[in-house]
Specification:
177 residues, alpha+beta, Aminopeptidase, two-stranded antiparallel sheet, 5 helices
């Protein structure tokens, strides 16, 4: 695969909207617990990405896409804490890879891009949550993220069944006083 990564801004977002919607529908359709139920449709996915685009426009959210020949294969978001006492941290959200493109290193490339940008923005503490027992846990541990626990019945998957989550963090750099 010849995958390229691009960090989107509000101007380039529209070029990837349809691919992002298809990516989200694919992930939910394959059972990923992402805050949506199985009845997620294109309209709801488009509304969600309108909110993401607003976050990209106001600088509170960063978004990357992985693509090959214009086809969106993956994406990841980084939500930058806006509170004055938390400017050293950011939350990784919605790491997605198209079901037909998994196991080719795309998620790893997206996570590396997130980490590099976080360091450049002095965001030395990254955290995320994922479904406990999911394949994603192996990836996060392999990338050096530490599991600090989880909550039972945290959120329901697309099928409506509540599932536990696992909470991970990684320290990239210590904040300076």
């Amino acid at each position: 695969m010849n995958v390229t990564l691009q960090q989107l801004d509000s101007a380039s977002f529209a070029n990837y909207r349809e691919g992002l919607i298809a990516l989200l529908l694919d992930a939910v359709g394959h059972g990923a617990s992402l805050g949506f139920l199985a009845d997620l449709d294109e309209r709801d996915a488009a509304e969600y990405f309108a909110q993401v685009q607003a976050g990209v426009a106001d600088g509170s959210m960063l978004l990357w896409v992985a693509q090959e020949q214009g086809r969106v294969l993956g994406s990841v978001q980084l939500s930058l804490c806006q509170k004055p006492n938390g400017l050293n941290r950011a939350e990784i959200q919605k790491l997605l890879v198209l079901s037909t493109a998994r196991r080719h290193g795309i998620a790893r490339l997206l996570m590396q891009a997130v980490e590099q940008e976080a360091v450049s923005r002095k965001r030395g503490l990254l955290y995320l949550d994922t479904e406990a027992g999911s394949d994603a846990e192996h990836l996060y541990r392999h990338l050096g993220y530490q599991c600090i626990g989880g909550l039972p019945d945290y959120a329901c998957g697309p099928d409506g069944t509540y599932r536990a989550n696992a909470i991970y963090y990684k320290t990239l750099a210590r904040p300076s006083p």
